[in-house]
Structure formats: structure tokens, C-alpha cells
Design a protein that fits this description.
The chain has 451 residues and is of the alpha/beta class. The protein has 14 helices and 16 strands. Strand 1 and strand 2 (50-53) form a beta hairpin. The chain binds ligand PLZ.
């Protein structure tokens, strides 16, 4: 039996199966069409690396609910902590009558985030909310207004974060006017910037510097916001040296560096945070997603003097740092530490790079295999010597993966990137089975099943 056939034993019914199809009809009749679903398979329960649907199909998870379930979607420690907290109380509002969990999460964030300086945190409900608040704090602390974001950036879907997000469709189209005082600089995107990585770092930085000088003025810049590895933009890893230069520029000009580690954080890239890789210490760091094992939580952590420059009562929200989400976060962080998921992410990354590298040798349409740790992507192109983006090919591979029970996600400004974000607790056998399905899907989409 081939390894692919073995993997397919996980599927009892076709994907999506009849129960999922029935549920999807109800979805279409009740949920707004604008809220899409990449793979209309309705999940009933999860194990590490597996999603089990209402038809009994077991799907291998290379998505982690978009980089959220780093500890798996049903981590026993998270489940137990949530159950205990729900039994005690579900909500009080931290701004009214506080509780220990919120404080404990802020203590953990001070320990885990880059830098040994005195820190403070504030908790919110989502990534976009964390980013919005980071900008509010930066503006208040610097008494400046301009914010510089990058090409291919993704920071959220609220009004301010839409302005920071670079891609029009589907995130911004028709939703303007957007928040003001947001400026965009070129991203150091090695694959689509001619030259070796060293040159890209230098040229991209020079372009940033010149553009901000000409169009914004250094003294007007409150903050530069950057994803240390871009997520929705297509897992773009800037060349070494570029991020430290941005940090130095911020220091030289009295601006704050905000790292959006919402997708890269919490062991995903093989370190606790992607900034750690180059010892970059941002002034503010926005986190969410992987922080709480699947419960909604976002945070801004930063230099104490910056965070505390905001007037009393200036930050908050009814649900920010909800006790159940905080309990989950503390448990998820414990699991990450205990299972050393940072080093596991590196091992997962090595497996991906090795197998996808071999595949790339045989498939001209794979322009690049890139990423760091368990955040890996392939960029699909027209073919040898023609780097025209191939979004239809990415969609075809994605669809075939889904039909064969592997949850994969697309990304990229041009829609031609397939990205892989397995839970860091995925068992080795499932990881290999997932890669079997992926390889088969690539070869079938490219060569029409002839290989
Ligand atoms: N910053 C770097 O990756 C969320 C978006 C999915 P929220 N990315 C997934 C979609 O299509 O809406 C994200 C991110 C980075 C901010 C966010 C926003 O986080 O929790 O979705 O608000």
C-alpha cells in the first residue's frame, strides 16, 4: 500500500461528506455570504494534528486555524484550565473587579517577550484589537501621528488595521475611507527583489529610509509596524540585517518599533518570537492567535515607560483579558514550555524544507520554498525562468489537498503561495502523511497525475 493510500484510510466519506454538505446548506441560508469558509467541512472534535468532522473523516491539520492552535486544538492542559475557570466564573470585567489570571498572563508576557527591560502589558480580544491599541499607545507616547507599514503587510480588518493592511481584495475593497496618517514602505521581499539577500536588505532599507524622509518626515513618525515574517503576505522572510536596521532607524529618530507577532509568535518560528532570531527588541509587541490555545486573546506588551504614558482609563474594553482566555493562555504557555515546542517547531521546519526542497527539484512551478520553523510556504510560478505568479495552480493544489483530507491554506498578495502551519504537537507520522498528500497534490496539479 502506498503511503498516500494509508493516509486516505482516515477518510470514511468523501470530503466534504453528506453531513457537512447538509450543514453547509444551513450555513448558506443563515450566515452572510461574505464570511467565507476555505473548506466547508464541519468539525466535531480535534486531536493533535487531526480535525475530525461530522462525517467521521479525520483531516490532517496544516493550518492550526491560521496559526492559533500551536499546542493543538484540544490540549489537555488548556481544556482542564478552561473547565476549571468556567466553573469558578466566566467574567467580571477586569476594569471593574479584577482577577489573578490577567495579572499572571502579563507577568508571563514580560518574561517571554524579547528584551529584559521593565515591561507592562494590556490584554484585548483579537489580533486587530492588539494592533489598534499598539498604535494608540505609540501615538500617545511619542505625541506624533504618522505610522509606517510595509507592502504585503497584514494587520487586521478593523478600520485602523485595514489602513495598515496592504492588500485590497478582499480585505479593504469598498470599505474606505480608511484611517489617516498611515504610510507604506517597500518590503524586503527577497524572491521578488533582484539580487542576493544581502543586497536586498541594503536596498530595501535604503528605499524605506529615503521614502520616509521624502514623504513623511522622520520627526512625524510615531511608529514603524512590521511583521518579522509576513503572514498573510505569503510568509515573506526578510533578509538578515533588515529588521535590526529598522530598529536602529527607530532609535535614531525617536519612533517606536512595533512588532506584529500575531502570526509568528509563541514558538511558531522555532523561537518564542520571530524577533528573537536576530535579537531584535521591539518597543511594543502585539500578540494574539497562539497565545491562548484557541481562545480569543490579544495583548500589547512594551516598555513600561511607553505603556504607562497613556492616561488612566485610556485603554480597556469589556472583555479584554477575559478570565477563561487568560486561564487558557497560562495553560498553553505551560504546554509550550514543557514540550519545548520552540525546538519542535524547528524540527518540523527541517522536515518540511527537506521534503519540499526535493519536490522543488522536480517541479519548476515551485519558485521558492521558504519560511522558518513550522511556518513554511511554497511560492508557485509559471515555470522555468518565468516567475509570473500562478494563483490558479496554488488553488488547484489547495483543493486537491482538501479533497484528500489535508487542511492547507493559501496566502500572498498574488494568491500564489501555499502555506503550512501544523500544530506544533503534530505526531511525526501525521506530519509525514500530510506531506505525502501535499506532494501528490502538487505533482497531480502540475503534471495531471502522470507522475
Ligand atoms: N496581524 C500578522 O496574521 C490575522 C487573518 C485571517 P485577528 N491573520 C489571519 C482573515 O482573513 O481575517 C492577523 C495576522 C497579523 C494581525 C492579524 C489580525 O488578527 O485576530 O484576526 O484580528
Amino acid at each position: 500500500m502506498t503511503r498516500l493510500a494509508e493516509a486516505q484510510r482516515l477518510l470514511r466519506k468523501r470530503v466534504p461528506g453528506p453531513q457537512s454538505v447538509a450543514l453547509h446548506e444551513r450555513k448558506l441560508a443563515s450566515v452572510a455570504d461574505s464570511v467565507g469558509t476555505a473548506l466547508p467541512v464541519y468539525v466535531e472534535r480535534a486531536e493533535s494534528g487531526l480535525l475530525i468532522d461530522v462525517d467521521g473523516n479525520e483531516l490532517i491539520d496544516f493550518g492550526s486555524g491560521i496559526a492559533v492552535t500551536n499546542v493543538g486544538a484540544a490540549d489537555p492542559r488548556v481544556v482542564e484550565a478552561v473547565q476549571r475557570q468556567v466553573q469558578n466564573f466566566t467574567h467580571t470585567c477586569f476594569m471593574v473587579t479584577p482577577y489573578e489570571g490577567y495579572v499572571a498572563v502579563c507577568e508571563r508576557l514580560a518574561e517571554l517577550t524579547p528584551g529584559t527591560h521593565e515591561k507592562r502589558s494590556a490584554l484585548f480580544n483579537s489580533g486587530a484589537e492588539a494592533v489598534e491599541n499598539a498604535i494608540k499607545i505609540a501615538r500617545r507616547a511619542t505625541r506624533r501621528q504618522a505610522v509606517v507599514a510595509f507592502d504585503h503587510a497584514y494587520h487586521g480588518r478593523t478600520n485602523l488595521t485595514m489602513a495598515l493592511t496592504s492588500k485590497n481584495m478582499p480585505y479593504k475593497h469598498g470599505f474606505g475611507p480608511f484611517a489617516g496618517e498611515i504610510f507604506r514602505a517597500p518590503m524586503a521581499y527577497p524572491y521578488r527583489w533582484n539580487g542576493d539577500r544581502q543586497r536586498v536588505a541594503e536596498e530595501a532599507y535604503a528605499a524605506f529610509e529615503a521614502q520616509v524622509h521624502a514623504q513623511v518626515g522622520e520627526d512625524n513618525v510615531a511608529a514603524v509596524i512590521v511583521e518579522p515574517i509576513q503572514g498573510e503576505g505569503g510568509f515573506i522572510v526578510p533578509p538578515r540585517g533588515w529588521l535590526p536596521r529598522l530598529q536602529r532607524w527607530c532609535q535614531d529618530h525617536g519612533a517606536l518599533l512595533i512588532a506584529d507577532e500575531i502570526q509568528t509568535g509563541f514558538c511558531r518560528t522555532g523561537d518564542w518570537f520571530a524577533c528573537d532570531h536576530e535579537q531584535v527588541v521591539p518597543d511594543l509587541i502585539a500578540t494574539a492567535k497562539g497565545i491562548a490555545g484557541g481562545l480569543p486573546l490579544g495583548a500589547v506588551t512594551g516598555r513600561a515607560e511607553v505603556m504607562n504614558s497613556v492616561h488612566a482609563g485610556g485603554l480597556g474594553g469589556t472583555y479584554g483579558g477575559n478570565p477563561v482566555a487568560c486561564a487558557a493562555a497560562l495553560a498553553a504557555m505551560e504546554t509550550m514550555e514543557e514540550l519545548e515546542l520552540d525546538s519542535r517547531a524547528r524540527e518540523i521546519g527541517d522536515v518540511f524544507v527537506q521534503r519540499l526542497g526535493r519536490l522543488q527539484d522536480n517541479v519548476d512551478a515551485i519558485g521558492e520554498v521558504r519560511g522558518r520553523g513550522a511556518m513554511i510556504a511554497i511560492e508557485l510560478i509559471a515555470g522555468v525562468g518565468d516567475t509570473t505568479p500562478a494563483p490558479e495552480l496554488a488553488a488547484a493544489i489547495n483543493k486537491r489537498c482538501h479533497e484528500h483530507g489535508l487542511v492547507t491554506l493559501t496566502a500572498g498578495t498574488y494568491g500564489n503561495v501555499l502555506r503550512f502551519l501544523p500544530p506544533l504537537t503534530i505526531p511525526e507520522a501525521l506530519l509525514q502523511q500530510g506531506l505525502d498528500i501535499l506532494e501528490d497534490a502538487v505533482l497531480t496539479a502540475v503534471y495531471g497525475g502522470l507522475q
